[in-house]
Amino acid sequence: MSVEPASAGQEPPREPIHKESLGRNVTIVGGAALASRIAGFVRDMLIAAMLGAGAVADAYVAAFLIPNLFRRLIGEGAFNAAYVPIFTRRRAEGGQESAASFAGAALSLLVALGLLILLAAEFAMPAIIAIVAPGFVDDARKFADAVAFGRILFPFVAVVLVAALFTGTLNAIGRYAVAAATPLILNLLLIAALLTAMAAGLGTGREAGFVLAWTLLAAGCLNLLIVAVATWRAGWRIRPAWPRLDPDIRRLMLIAMPGIAIIGSGPVNIVIAAQLSSGTPSAMAWLYFADRIFELPLGFVVASVGAVLLPAVARHLASGDVEAASAAESRALEFGLLITLPAAIALALLTQPIVSILYERGAFTAKDSEAVAAMLRALAFGLPAFALVKVFLPAFLAREDLKSPILAAGLGIAANIAVTLALIPQIGPVAAAIGVTASATVNALALGVMLLRRGLFRPDALALKRLPRVLLASALTGLAVLLLADWLGPRLDGNNAPLVRIMVLGFICCSGVLIQFGLAYALKAVDFPRFRGLKRP
Predict the structure, then answer these.
(1) Which terminal Cβ of the chain has fewer Cβ within 10 Å, N or C?
(2) Model confidence at 19: pLDDT above 50
């Protein structure tokens, strides 16, 4: 059997759908994501101080790209997008036993797939690194380090595959908090490992890279244990069984693989950008550090909206309530732009002090800060587009329409490659970040046009009323941040004490957040009580 009931003949309690609060769930998941991103900042500050942007950092980033790609594709969206609608339908039609049977069969499939990928990758790691970082081939030491790190890190892929099923189950039954909080543990373990390595005097050597790789694998295993136990305690005792390719498992496979291409367009574009710029020393490390800052505001929207919106839309459509699905998507659109528009403006205005304050110490030089700041500025302009892609996708995925999003993602990837190759000879590795922004913009435009033309999603009357106010609030917030940065600029330069610079930057950022939400409230751009308590009629 693939499932044991919580108690004989009794289904565990579930959260009533009619009491679902989209705003509360988004806040829970987004808050957990924000805490994880903040801890990730501390982790990356330590990595920058210890490794800088040199050869070992480049090798670690190259080895980490593919496992991190799987983590973001599988653990942060693609599998969830395929699994949740089928699980929700099985639960609605056949109850817990039917849904759990499907989950057990899917778990068996993922375990087998993880083992096959792991065995193949361990033997093929030199070829994988040569593809991911072709610029390393002529540097024997860097290439060998990347291969060694990759062989340690790649088991993380198998762990992520299995953890994704338990995370998807928790999301589908409304237990968002545990699944969202577990990445925080990974970051805390890496921080502890980095502090230990620095205290041991490992410096910028490859030993520090090995410490990072082994700790990341251990943290992934711990995350898997946490989500598995949380699923068990929720009454869903899912165990692997002999793989059965029933119609829903086949459907899962047919949806998940294209879903990886759809939702993974953002992470895949980062990998492509790193690949195209790998011939420039330190370029992969620069892109990594820029992307980590970029993901702070993006991660809040992507993790919260992605985890909560798709299950909500899938439930509404399964019950035939198209109006409620449209309302949920409209609120997510307002929320995504409310967060990302001012964040994009602030990032574009404050890139240099942000990068310098966060990273410029130890082995990380002023030259590295300038390069990372240029890449971050280019990425910042794509932030709203990334959010729009995440808001638009559920309208397709909940209807199991995969062809259109794949087409949009393919257009975006083509735009990335074309823009990067055209610009990199003229402006260097910053072209890779511009290509990523171009890709997100093309993807979002293609999805939006298809949705409007087919009538799958149209912003409701409230959204049409509020969106211009969101734009106005964001523009005024950007102006306020610009004035604050000009006024306090002398306090942000390197001649001041680090604590002073951190406090001034924090003051500007916190002021921007307060101004944005204050203006949104004053302009009635968002009805906060209604957003928090959005319920299905």
Answers:
(1) C
(2) no
Q: Given this model, what pLDDT does residue 142 score?
A: 87
With residue 458 as reference, give the H or E element that holds it. Answer: none
Between CA 90 and CA 353 the distance in angstroms is 51
Can you tell me the distance from the alpha carbon of 231 to that of 361, in angstroms, rounded to the nearest whole number? Answer: 42
Angle made by CA atoms 202, 206, 207, in degrees to the nearest 5: 45
Contacts of 311 (CB under 8 A, 6+ apart): 84, 88, 171, 172, 174
Which tokens belong to 309? 């919106």
Residue 234: C-alpha distances to residues 38, 66, 95, 527 (Å): 29, 32, 15, 33
* Confidence band for 41, pLDDT divided at 50, 70 and 90: confident
Contact 460, 330 (CB under 8 A): yes
Nearest to 68 by CA among 166, 148, 197, 183: 183
Higher-confidence residue of 167 and 265: namely 167
Q: Does an H or E element contain 238, and which? A: strand 237-238
Is the Cβ–Cβ distance between 363 and 204 less than 8 Å? yes
The one-letter amino acid at 292:
R
**Main-chain dihedrals φ then ψ at residue 363, nearest 5 degrees:** -80, -5
CB 397 within 8 A of CB 310: yes
Residue range 159-173: mean pLDDT, rounded:
82
Q: What percent of the chain has pLDDT over 70?
A: 80
Residue 47's CB: how many other CB atoms inside 10 A?
27
Model pTM greater than 0.70? yes
Contacts of 385 (CB under 8 A, 6+ apart): 437, 440, 441, 443, 444
Q: What b-and-e string marks burial along 345-362, b requiring 16 or more CB atoms within 10 Å of the CB?
A: bbbbbbbbbbbbbbbbeb
Write out the two tokens for 14. 């579930």
282: left (phi over 0), alpha (psi -120 to 50) or beta: left
Report residue 4: phi and psi, to 5°.
Answer: -115, 130
Per-residue HEC secondary structure of 338-357 comes to HHHHHHHHHHHHHHHHHHHH
Residue 310: exposure state from Cβ atoms within 10 A (0-12, 13-18, ≥19): buried
Q: How far apart are CA 280 and CA 368, in angstroms?
A: 13
C-alpha span between 529 and 370 (Å, rounded) = 42
Catalogue the E-assigned strands of 280-364: none
Instruction: Identify whether the C-beta of residue 173 lies closer than 8 Å to the C-beta of residue 225.
Output: no
Angle ∠(353,339,454) on CA atoms, nearest 5: 135
Q: Looking at this protein, which amino acid is placed at residue 79?
A: F
CB atoms inside a 10 Å sphere around CB 374: 21
